[in-house]
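Batch manifest, entry 17 of 40.
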Amino acid sequence: MLKQSLTRNLVKGLAVTAAILLAAGCDNTAKQTVNNAPPQSVTQQADTTHNARTSLDWAGTYQGMLPCADCEAINTTVTLNADGSYQLERVYVGKSVRVFTEQGIFNWSDIGSTVLLEAEQPVQFFVAENQLFMLDKQGKRIEGDMAARYRLQKLTE
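Output type: structure tokens
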């Protein structure tokens, strides 16, 4: 009997403790403290006004030889126009002399550092000064020994 009484008291005590902890977690004053925290300093905030889209002379024609799985290379030319349109030309070297051309619109990423060509098979590029770096399907920079081969250089007029 004493054992059952102790067990019931322990269970009640645990239930009361859990209820107190739950109520403390839902307390609005704790939320207000977080919400009323001082804003981040200017140096800590993301600088969305200074990016490739707004700071670089990105419009123009870029050219390079991209790696190819079943040919020597893909001679690739991308023209990005200030109006948001693009032209993509590809020649599969060692496989064909035909020029495959696609035209359309491109979109900037939210942070203004990459462009997405709305093509039959969408292509993303990281925009740097006078060059484009082709990104993988997840939108990440290609790394490793082949990384330097996924670069298009801006042509000068």
